[in-house]
Every structure is written in structure tokens, then in C-alpha cells.
């Protein structure tokens, strides 16, 4: 009789073990934990479920990536968002969240590349537009402050194609100011030549005017995008006056 009871208990234990590792049950527990914002448990359950099902569930991979981001498992988040991207699940947001994980890892080149790839797929994604624009506006301002005008110009130009009024205006205005300052510096350096070498001064004046013309073009485009912008309104007459 004792032997029978032992075998019966053993069967119950084995049955419970298989129930606990059933993929459907694990996924349910992951969903419950995620909805309760218990991200450590959600990540553990989702990652185990995906492991058992060979990463076939794109939606769960996406939410597993979200849970990973929440608990600062950023390399793992990148892996799961890549699965979602490959399977085209919520692809724009998957790119945006993957980029956020890369940013947290301070992998700047990969961060920018991911945003660029994502914007090709989902050009109106607000999160990616914001992050991409702010990255290059800040980079442009930093380069300008360091006296690297060409690098600053390249950074500002990255923002212009994006569909966002404020960021686009900021980039165009920054380019206008950059070109104006460059033209003004050319004229300042050429000033001593005005009386000593008229031809050389004229050549430098032509270069300065070309930069002023670029400034006007950028500022007029900015005025079309944001006609109410006070900075643009003030800057345009100043640049035009410098061309006289």
C-alpha cells in the first residue's frame, strides 16, 4: 500500500512540473506580470517562453524587449526588438525602443543608425523624429561652439528633411546664423584689403556674399515653415543688410 501511495505522489509531482513549464502558461504569467508592471518577472517569463518556442512569437518578443528596457537589461532588449523588427511587429516603435536601449548603452553610432533605419520604415514616428532631431541639433551646436563650422553645418542639415515644424525651423535658423557668421568673418578678415588690394578684397567680398545668400535662403525657408518665429523675423533683415 505504501508503494502505491509513493508512486501516486510521484505522478502528481511530475504532472505539476510539466504544467509549470507549459509555454502557454508561462506566457500568461508573463502577460499578467507585465500588466501589473512587475517587469523583472515579466522579462523572466517572456524570455523563457520565447526560448521554448524558438522566438517565433513576435509580439511577445516586443514586450519582452520593453520589460528588458525597464529593468535595464539593454543588450537583451536590443536582441528582442531585433526579433520584432525582423518579423515586422509594431516595427516603428520596435526601432524606437531599440534605439533607446542603444542610447542607454552609449553606442552612439548604432543609436543613430537605428533611428535612420527606423525612419525609413516609419518616417512619421514621433519618438524617432524627436530623438534624431535633438541628437543632430545638439551635435551641431556643440560643433559650432567648438569652431567646427563644417561639422555643425552637416549636423543641422540632417534635421531638415524630417517632418517636424519646430525641429526643422531650428535647423534652418541655425544654418542661417552659421552661414551669416561665416560671411561676416570673411568680411572682417578682408577689411584691411579694402584700401591695399581692391581686387583681392572684391574676391573675398564675393565669397562673403555667397554665404550671406545661403543664409537668406535658409532663413526664408524657415520663415515659410514658421512665419510666426521671432528669431527668423529679426535675423532676415540683418543678413540682407550685410549683403549691401
UniProtKB/TrEMBL annotation:
<dbReference type="GO" id="GO:0051879">
    <property type="term" value="F:Hsp90 protein binding"/>
</dbReference>
<keyword id="KW-0802">TPR repeat</keyword>
<feature type="signal peptide">
    <location>
        <begin position="1"/>
        <end position="19"/>
    </location>
</feature>
<protein>
    <recommendedName>
        <fullName>Tetratricopeptide repeat protein</fullName>
    </recommendedName>
</protein>
<keyword id="KW-0732">Signal</keyword>
<keyword id="KW-0677">Repeat</keyword>
<dbReference type="InterPro" id="IPR011990">
    <property type="entry name" value="TPR-like_helical_dom_sf"/>
</dbReference>
<dbReference type="InterPro" id="IPR019734">
    <property type="entry name" value="TPR_rpt"/>
</dbReference>
Amino acid at each position: 500500500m505504501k508503494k502505491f501511495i509513493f508512486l501516486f505522489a510521484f505522478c502528481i509531482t511530475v504532472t505539476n512540473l510539466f504544467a509549470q513549464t507549459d509555454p502557454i502558461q508561462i506566457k500568461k504569467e508573463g502577460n499578467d506580470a507585465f500588466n501589473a508592471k512587475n517587469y523583472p518577472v515579466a522579462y523572466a517569463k517572456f524570455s523563457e517562453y520565447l526560448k521554448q518556442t524558438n522566438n517565433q512569437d513576435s509580439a511577445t518578443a516586443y514586450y519582452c524587449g520593453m520589460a528588458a528596457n525597464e529593468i535595464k537589461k539593454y543588450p537583451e532588449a536590443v536582441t528582442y526588438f531585433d526579433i520584432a523588427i525582423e518579423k515586422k511587429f509594431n516595427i516603428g516603435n520596435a526601432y524606437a525602443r531599440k534605439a533607446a536601449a542603444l542610447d542607454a548603452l552609449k553606442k552612439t553610432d548604432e543609436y543613430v543608425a537605428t533611428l535612420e533605419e527606423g525612419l525609413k520604415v516609419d518616417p512619421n514616428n514621433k519618438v524617432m523624429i524627436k530623438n534624431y532631431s535633438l541628437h543632430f541639433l545638439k551635435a551641431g551646436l556643440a560643433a559650432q561652439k567648438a569652431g567646427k563650422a563644417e561639422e555643425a553645418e552637416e549636423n543641422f542639415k540632417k534635421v531638415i528633411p524630417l517632418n517636424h515644424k519646430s525641429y526643422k525651423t531650428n535647423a534652418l535658423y541655425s544654418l542661417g546664423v552659421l552661414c551669416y557668421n561665416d560671411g561676416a568673418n570673411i568680411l572682417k578678415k578682408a577689411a584691411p584689403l579694402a584700401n591695399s588690394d581692391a581686387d583681392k578684397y572684391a574676391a573675398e567680398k564675393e565669397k562673403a556674399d555667397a554665404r550671406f545668400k545661403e543664409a537668406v535662403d535658409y532663413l526664408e525657408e524657415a520663415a515659410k515653415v514658421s512665419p510666426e518665429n521671432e528669431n527668423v523675423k529679426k535675423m532676415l533683415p540683418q543678413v540682407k543688410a550685410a549683403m549691401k
